[in-house]
Design a protein that fits this description.
The chain is an all-alpha fold and 199 residues long. It is 60% helix and 0% strand. Helix 1 runs antiparallel to helix 2.
Length: 199
């Protein structure tokens, strides 16, 4: 399966499991540096996608998240160990698209959930830009695409940005965040004034 497919596919962007796991290792390790470590539920949920190719690791991860006996710090620490081990076992045997295919019959994301995903996408995009680290731009694309499922106009605009900035990740994140902010604040297209940026 081509994990670098065109970004205008109706099914949405694809992403390699290894990239998801590398992203999670980074974010979970960052959480461990805090006095009260915590990882957002949505980011935790990406672990299910990243581990989709490894049933044993996925089961272990789900068990960790559900455990009432472990502290948040211990759950995060052990999760990192699971992600690191899974990276050694060719996690790219399956992609994000494969996992989405299993959920075709799931109910559509509602407006409240869309807004939550959108806020996470905005925050993640900002962190990537602030750190000048755009290795995980695909994570931003996935979150943005999911969050706009209830806004066809915003989604179409987001996909245009993804195609326009396919080779300019910082520009993609910057312009993509503009669109997400427009949707969050309910600005109409006529109110959106963006300078034309070159790729």
């Amino acid at each position: 399966m081509n994990t670098n497919s065109c970004l205008d596919e109706p099914e949405g962007p694809e992403i390699q499991s290894s990239l998801i796991l590398e992203f999670l290792i980074k974010r979970f390790n960052e959480a461990l540096t805090r006095e009260n470590p915590k990882v957002p539920f949505l980011i935790q949920g990406l672990g299910h996608v990243g581990l989709a190719a490894d049933e044993e690791s996925l089961a272990n991860y789900k068990g960790l998240l559900a455990s009432p006996y472990l502290s948040p710090r211990e759950v995060i620490r052990r999760s990192v160990e699971i992600f690191e081990e899974a990276l050694q076992c060719d996690p790219d045997a399956r992609s994000f698209q494969d996992s989405k295919g299993q959920a075709e019959d799931d109910p559509s994301i509602d407006e409240k959930a869309s807004r939550h995903v959108m806020m996470v996408a905005l925050r993640e995009g900002k962190q990537m830009l602030d750190e000048h680290d755009v290795r995980f731009v695909r994570i931003f694309e996935i979150l943005g695409w999911i969050s706009l499922q209830n806004d066809p106009e915003g989604l179409a605009e987001f996909e245009q940005v993804r195609m326009r900035f396919a080779n300019a990740p910082e520009g993609l994140i910057d312009a993509g965040r503009d669109i997400l902010r427009d949707v969050v604040f309910r600005r109409r297209p006529s109110d959106r004034v963006r300078p034309v940026k070159n790729c």
